[in-house]
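Researcher: Next sequence.
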Amino acid sequence: MSSVRFLLTGVLVAAALFAQKPPDLKTTPSFDLGAIDRKANPCTDFYQYACGTWLKNNPIPPDQSSWGRFSELDERNQTILRQILEKASLVSNTTATTRDANTQKIGDYYFSCMDETSINKKGLQPLQDELGRIRAIKNTRDLSAEIARLHRLGVDVIFNFSSGQDAKDSNAVIGQADQGGIGLPEKDYYFRTDAKSVETRKEYVAHISRMLQLTGVPAAEAGKQADTVMRVETALAKVSLDVTNRRDPQQTYHKMKLAEFEALSDSFNWSLYFATLQTPKMESLNVAVPDFFKGQETLLKTVSIADWNTYLTFHLIHSQAAILPTKFTDENFAFYGKYLTGAKEQKPRWKRCVRATDGDLGEALGKAYVDLTFGREGKQRTLDMVGHIEAAMAQDLNQLSWMTPATKKRAQDKLHAITNKIGYPDKWRDYSALRIVRGDALGNSLRANEFEVNRQLQKIGKPVDRLEWAMTPPTVNAYYDPQMNNINFPAGILQPPFFDKQASDAVNYGAIGAVIGHELTHGFDDEGRQFDPKGNLNDWWTAADAKAFDQREQCFVKEYSSFELKGGVHMNGKLTLGENTADNGGIRLAWIALMNGLAGRTLPKLGGFDESQQFFLGWGQIWCENETPEVERLQAQTNPHAIDRFRVNGTVSNMPEFQKAFGCNEGLPMVRGGNACRTW
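Model: Next structure:
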């Protein structure tokens, strides 16, 4: 399975829309002297020092569960997308036919999503045909066909089926069968026994009951049906692989003949399923978790058809909650937003509709965004910085004392094979097969889901498209793909505070430079190192190198597992290992690149801070973020990234360069000294 890693009075046709200047919006400064808490000691708590005043002055908005520098930029990007979409959605009698295809699609999708009055008036009527098909299921054959129909509509029931690169033949796309079908964040939510976890399960069952009541099910019956859904999901969770073990690509690669896969759960009508799903012919596929499908077979023999009908009904409603009438949207937010993440208010409808349009038509919308905000100049500036950091990594690899010469050479080969995708795709996605109808919000959502599911399925048996992106251009994030062996930086993140052409090199290298280094090192962490330069799952390390690497990695596991949140929840050092290694390696590579570029020169001081201090403040300040206790707990239990405070302090405490920059003495919290962790 893929191991991709991650850090919107008249109609305007595309040419006119793209020609506009960016909206006059507030730009977040890349180096914010006002964010610094001067009362804090950088050697005691650098995160508080770099961000303390910002944290105090930037409380979490009521429609958010967290608020940070990423959020500020994302909010700016969403506002730009909103302006694009509002102009694209305007139609008059004389200009209705002059919009190009993409402008029509994004404009009408957004307009339909915003038309809450029409959505409320229609109620569940647009889903009645599908709900009727679920009610009509009489046997396992019917169940198999209906699961395929729901999968084509993007509804996650029982298991997941899609396409993906063959982990051991990176040029080939094969079918991928995987676990799925649960509504809580991950497997262990169904089994933890602490008081909060028990409470969460009770709240989830109550949420299911309320959602079913909104469809017209009487309260007492809805309660029974909610228990049924929970019972089925718990059984699915029991045979699923947990989130930590899924980080190991060896544990999610089991290629087998189609007949072997079908035999794992032979009560299921696979031939009917694949015919209904409309998959290309397959001789073999990857089965991520074979034990899951063995468990599915047990469920098919023990769960009644009536209970399956209940389970499927809830998940169909759940999957479309964001585009259903307000009462469904509000109930969905009450559990997933308010209870699980601590947000106080539902996001304004325009934000939800911008996000939905970006999700379903991201490259049609993204092309307009790129022309307004980024352009070719930004792409070239970023590529230059990537080149400098890649050179720093080549230098670092050569100097490693623990890696043998043979493995160093192969590491250099992999590094030089990494390709860089910056800003936006070279080839934009074709949405011509996707029909968007003005006034049909739910239909647009379902057709967009089916378009994307079919697009993914039709890759099976074809060569890998190495030009494709897994993020839309406005996204404030970045990723490394080990099977493609490339790094990807959308235009959305290549702006202040992460990259600013007005900022000093020290600040830029501490901010976006460390993020670039972070993504590069993913190719050599505990997951990425298992893939060779071509992206094949092929362990190219010697046993001695692997042992030396693992010894260094255990230091990070121990360090980050020691970090504790309020309420007694600890970070999971094994779950966050790859990201922690990348944070520590990325900032070190950025530091090397900066020092190489300065070649002994000094930069002008900013606010009294020299270039070394600017670098570390650039790093610390991109992670300034307030989070609700609920979302911190959720992140600690499910997310491979550490909490931002720990990302910053855990990293700088391992760096003698930081301690020198701020004059930190032995014994202070930001000085790990002999306990410092380092891989790269």
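Model: The mean pLDDT is 93. The first helix runs from residue 14 to 19.
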